[in-house]
Design goal:
The complex is a heterodimer of chains A (about 110) and B (about 110). By secondary structure, chain A is mainly beta. Chain A has no helices and 11 strands. In chain A, the strands form 2 sheets. In chain A, strands 2, 4, 5, 6, 9, 10 and 11 form a 7-stranded mixed β-sheet that branches. With about 110 residues, chain B is mostly beta strands. In chain B, strand 8 and strand 9 form a beta hairpin. Chain B is globular and about 40 Å long. The chains are: A mainly beta (about 110), B mainly beta (about 110).
Amino acid sequence: GAVVSQHPSWVICKSGTSVKIECRSLDFQATTMFWYRQFPKQSLMLMATSNEGSKATYEQGVEKDKFLINHASLTLSTLTVTSAHPEDSSFYICSARVAGVEQYFGPGTRLTVT
Amino acid sequence: AQSVSQHNHHVILSEAASLELGCNYSYGGTVNLFWYVQYPGQHLQLLLKYFSGDPLVKGIKGFEAEFIKSKFSFNLRKPSVQWSDTAEYFCAVNADGNKLVFGAGTILRVKS
């Protein structure tokens, strides 16, 4: 149980375009979902926390107009990278939480912006 | 701000060697502590967690960790590693009931 999926697993886009990444909790309803970014050889950095039906809470330094997060249902959250640039290339990971503290992680999405 | 420090970025061991990965955190209050593992090409998986009670926590695949409050540490151990333990290991701390703060990770390579 507690499986989280992400789609796509890998995406290449051109500079200036937008990319949407989906995060789904497959066998449970997630009240809260988290979006992380992982740079090569570095740790996961929390970008934002989203609760179903409300606006996401962004971490300091994360541009909310660039990284649009929508958590429209208890099983789906989306991250849209708008007007992507090469410096946005990274590994994006989501996690989902039912209650309490424990988070279940998705497999990640590798974004390459050319 | 909370921070998590993992002492070694790369560790290379031979099979059957003992493993200890260090993790220290900075936060003076009550914390929840986690160790996650990321096998090559796979997603993060929870190895073990500490919320309260016995400070020696046993997890999956023979791993254990000890919470030493006075040292702000939560080191991961395994008595005898296997080739299949090759992976990246992340220590994480939750101090506010919401966010996880991760350490930089330790890449473990086990030589067969």
